[in-house]
Write a structure and sequence with these properties.
34% strand; 34% helix; alpha+beta; Aminopeptidase; binds coenzyme A; 161 residues
Protein backbone atom coordinates (compact mmCIF):
# COMPACT_ATOMS: atom_id res chain seq x y z
CA UNK A 1 0.00 0.00 0.00
CA UNK A 2 1.44 3.40 -0.90
CA UNK A 3 -1.39 5.75 -0.07
CA UNK A 4 -5.02 6.67 -0.32
CA UNK A 5 -7.00 8.49 -2.93
CA UNK A 6 -10.43 9.57 -1.68
CA UNK A 7 -12.24 6.32 -0.79
CA UNK A 8 -9.61 3.95 -2.21
CA UNK A 9 -6.37 2.24 -1.28
CA UNK A 10 -3.58 2.70 -3.82
CA UNK A 11 -0.74 0.18 -4.16
CA UNK A 12 1.99 -0.74 -6.63
CA UNK A 13 3.30 -4.12 -7.72
CA UNK A 14 6.03 -4.99 -10.23
CA UNK A 15 4.67 -5.74 -13.71
CA UNK A 16 5.41 -9.17 -15.13
CA UNK A 17 5.22 -10.67 -18.66
CA UNK A 18 1.58 -11.75 -18.14
CA UNK A 19 0.63 -8.09 -17.75
CA UNK A 20 1.75 -7.19 -21.30
CA UNK A 21 -1.74 -6.86 -22.85
CA UNK A 22 -2.89 -4.67 -19.96
CA UNK A 23 0.27 -2.54 -20.28
CA UNK A 24 -0.39 -2.22 -24.00
CA UNK A 25 -3.98 -1.07 -23.33
CA UNK A 26 -2.76 1.46 -20.78
CA UNK A 27 -0.08 2.72 -23.21
CA UNK A 28 -2.71 3.06 -25.93
CA UNK A 29 -5.04 5.08 -23.70
CA UNK A 30 -2.14 7.33 -22.68
CA UNK A 31 -1.13 7.97 -26.32
CA UNK A 32 -4.73 8.90 -27.14
CA UNK A 33 -4.50 11.60 -24.49
CA UNK A 34 -0.99 12.85 -25.18
CA UNK A 35 -1.35 12.87 -28.97
CA UNK A 36 -4.91 14.01 -29.66
CA UNK A 37 -6.09 13.91 -33.24
CA UNK A 38 -4.28 10.72 -34.32
CA UNK A 39 -6.49 7.90 -35.58
CA UNK A 40 -6.87 4.59 -33.69
CA UNK A 41 -4.56 2.55 -35.90
CA UNK A 42 -1.74 5.08 -35.74
CA UNK A 43 -2.14 5.32 -31.95
CA UNK A 44 -2.00 1.53 -31.62
CA UNK A 45 1.20 1.45 -33.68
CA UNK A 46 2.64 4.25 -31.57
CA UNK A 47 1.77 2.38 -28.37
CA UNK A 48 3.48 -0.79 -29.71
CA UNK A 49 6.60 1.17 -30.63
CA UNK A 50 6.66 2.66 -27.13
CA UNK A 51 6.30 -0.81 -25.56
CA UNK A 52 9.11 -2.22 -27.71
CA UNK A 53 11.41 0.70 -26.99
CA UNK A 54 10.68 0.25 -23.29
CA UNK A 55 11.77 -3.39 -23.45
CA UNK A 56 15.12 -2.41 -24.99
CA UNK A 57 15.98 0.44 -22.63
CA UNK A 58 19.38 0.73 -21.00
CA UNK A 59 19.25 1.00 -18.03
CA UNK A 60 16.10 -1.15 -17.99
CA UNK A 61 12.89 0.50 -16.88
CA UNK A 62 11.17 -0.57 -13.69
CA UNK A 63 7.54 -1.06 -14.57
CA UNK A 64 4.89 -1.26 -11.90
CA UNK A 65 1.16 -1.63 -12.02
CA UNK A 66 -0.98 0.80 -10.08
CA UNK A 67 -3.60 -1.09 -8.07
CA UNK A 68 -6.72 0.43 -6.56
CA UNK A 69 -8.25 -1.80 -3.93
CA UNK A 70 -6.27 -4.61 -5.61
CA UNK A 71 -7.48 -3.92 -9.15
CA UNK A 72 -4.88 -2.92 -11.79
CA UNK A 73 -5.86 0.50 -13.15
CA UNK A 74 -2.63 1.96 -14.51
CA UNK A 75 1.12 1.74 -14.75
CA UNK A 76 4.25 3.70 -13.93
CA UNK A 77 7.69 3.23 -15.49
CA UNK A 78 10.85 4.67 -13.95
CA UNK A 79 14.60 4.28 -14.35
CA UNK A 80 17.56 5.18 -12.19
CA UNK A 81 20.72 6.88 -13.38
CA UNK A 82 23.25 8.55 -11.06
CA UNK A 83 21.45 11.16 -8.96
CA UNK A 84 18.27 10.85 -11.03
CA UNK A 85 15.01 8.96 -10.81
CA UNK A 86 13.52 9.26 -14.27
CA UNK A 87 9.75 9.17 -14.54
CA UNK A 88 9.47 7.57 -17.98
CA UNK A 89 5.71 7.31 -18.01
CA UNK A 90 2.66 7.25 -15.81
CA UNK A 91 -0.83 6.47 -17.07
CA UNK A 92 -4.14 5.35 -15.69
CA UNK A 93 -7.01 3.83 -17.61
CA UNK A 94 -9.43 6.67 -18.43
CA UNK A 95 -12.18 5.87 -15.95
CA UNK A 96 -9.70 5.97 -13.05
CA UNK A 97 -8.37 9.43 -13.76
CA UNK A 98 -9.07 12.57 -11.76
CA UNK A 99 -9.62 10.81 -8.47
CA UNK A 100 -6.30 11.63 -6.83
CA UNK A 101 -4.69 8.29 -7.75
CA UNK A 102 -1.95 9.82 -9.92
CA UNK A 103 -1.12 12.30 -7.17
CA UNK A 104 -0.84 9.45 -4.62
CA UNK A 105 1.53 7.55 -6.94
CA UNK A 106 3.65 10.64 -7.63
CA UNK A 107 3.81 11.52 -3.91
CA UNK A 108 5.18 8.05 -3.31
CA UNK A 109 7.73 8.52 -6.10
CA UNK A 110 8.90 11.76 -4.46
CA UNK A 111 9.32 10.01 -1.11
CA UNK A 112 11.49 7.34 -2.76
CA UNK A 113 13.49 9.99 -4.64
CA UNK A 114 14.03 12.01 -1.45
CA UNK A 115 15.15 8.91 0.45
CA UNK A 116 17.63 8.14 -2.35
CA UNK A 117 18.63 11.84 -2.75
CA UNK A 118 17.62 11.82 -6.40
CA UNK A 119 16.14 14.46 -8.67
CA UNK A 120 12.98 13.28 -10.45
CA UNK A 121 13.17 14.01 -14.16
CA UNK A 122 10.43 13.64 -16.77
CA UNK A 123 9.34 14.75 -20.22
CA UNK A 124 5.87 15.92 -21.07
CA UNK A 125 4.53 16.59 -24.56
CA UNK A 126 3.41 20.11 -25.41
CA UNK A 127 0.17 18.43 -26.51
CA UNK A 128 -0.47 17.29 -22.93
CA UNK A 129 -0.99 20.52 -20.98
CA UNK A 130 -3.11 18.86 -18.28
CA UNK A 131 -0.30 16.49 -17.29
CA UNK A 132 2.13 19.42 -17.43
CA UNK A 133 -0.15 21.43 -15.12
CA UNK A 134 -0.40 18.53 -12.66
CA UNK A 135 3.38 18.06 -12.58
CA UNK A 136 3.98 21.76 -11.98
CA UNK A 137 1.38 21.77 -9.22
CA UNK A 138 3.25 18.91 -7.56
CA UNK A 139 6.57 20.76 -7.60
CA UNK A 140 8.20 20.05 -10.95
CA UNK A 141 9.82 22.98 -12.74
CA UNK A 142 10.53 23.38 -16.44
CA UNK A 143 14.24 23.04 -17.20
CA UNK A 144 14.32 22.73 -20.99
CA UNK A 145 12.12 22.25 -24.02
CA UNK A 146 12.38 20.98 -27.55
CA UNK A 147 9.89 20.99 -30.41
CA UNK A 148 7.93 18.06 -28.91
CA UNK A 149 8.12 18.33 -25.17
CA UNK A 150 9.14 20.00 -21.94
CA UNK A 151 11.87 18.51 -19.80
CA UNK A 152 10.88 18.96 -16.18
CA UNK A 153 12.54 18.26 -12.85
CA UNK A 154 11.56 17.98 -9.25
CA UNK A 155 14.67 18.43 -7.16
CA UNK A 156 14.95 16.72 -3.79
CA UNK A 157 15.85 19.11 -0.98
CA UNK A 158 18.76 16.76 -0.24
CA UNK A 159 19.78 15.96 -3.87
CA UNK A 160 23.43 16.34 -4.71
CA UNK A 161 23.88 19.41 -6.92
C1 LIG B 1 -1.63 12.10 -15.74
C2 LIG B 1 -2.38 11.09 -14.85
C3 LIG B 1 -1.47 9.92 -14.52
C4 LIG B 1 -2.74 11.83 -13.52
O1 LIG B 1 -3.40 10.94 -12.68
P1 LIG B 1 -4.82 11.32 -12.07
O2 LIG B 1 -5.16 10.32 -11.05
O3 LIG B 1 -5.79 11.55 -13.17
O4 LIG B 1 -4.48 12.73 -11.39
P2 LIG B 1 -5.12 13.32 -10.07
O5 LIG B 1 -6.54 12.90 -9.95
O6 LIG B 1 -4.22 13.04 -8.92
O7 LIG B 1 -5.02 14.86 -10.41
C5 LIG B 1 -5.90 15.35 -11.43
C6 LIG B 1 -5.13 16.21 -12.36
O8 LIG B 1 -4.39 15.45 -13.29
C7 LIG B 1 -4.23 16.22 -14.49
N1 LIG B 1 -4.47 15.39 -15.66
C8 LIG B 1 -3.52 15.15 -16.59
N2 LIG B 1 -3.99 14.37 -17.54
C9 LIG B 1 -5.27 14.12 -17.26
C10 LIG B 1 -6.28 13.37 -17.91
N3 LIG B 1 -6.07 12.71 -19.03
N4 LIG B 1 -7.49 13.30 -17.34
C11 LIG B 1 -7.74 13.96 -16.19
N5 LIG B 1 -6.82 14.68 -15.52
C12 LIG B 1 -5.58 14.76 -16.06
C13 LIG B 1 -5.15 17.41 -14.40
O9 LIG B 1 -4.29 18.53 -14.09
C14 LIG B 1 -6.01 17.09 -13.22
O10 LIG B 1 -6.27 18.25 -12.49
P3 LIG B 1 -7.69 18.97 -12.67
O11 LIG B 1 -8.68 17.96 -12.15
O12 LIG B 1 -7.56 20.19 -11.83
O13 LIG B 1 -7.85 19.24 -14.12
C15 LIG B 1 -3.68 10.56 -15.50
O14 LIG B 1 -4.60 11.62 -15.65
C16 LIG B 1 -3.46 9.90 -16.85
O15 LIG B 1 -3.27 8.70 -16.93
N6 LIG B 1 -3.49 10.70 -17.95
C17 LIG B 1 -3.27 10.17 -19.29
C18 LIG B 1 -1.83 9.74 -19.50
C19 LIG B 1 -0.87 10.89 -19.35
O16 LIG B 1 -1.12 12.00 -19.83
N7 LIG B 1 0.26 10.63 -18.65
C20 LIG B 1 1.30 11.60 -18.43
C21 LIG B 1 2.39 11.40 -19.44
S1 LIG B 1 3.63 12.66 -19.28
Amino acid sequence: MIGHAPGATVALRPANPEDESLLQAIALSARADALPGLDGEVLAMQASVVRRARAGRVPPADEELVLVDGEPVGAIATARTPGVLELIDIALLPRWRRRGIGTAVLDRLFTVADDERRTVRARVYHTNPRAHALYRRLGFVDVDRDELSWMIERRSASAAS
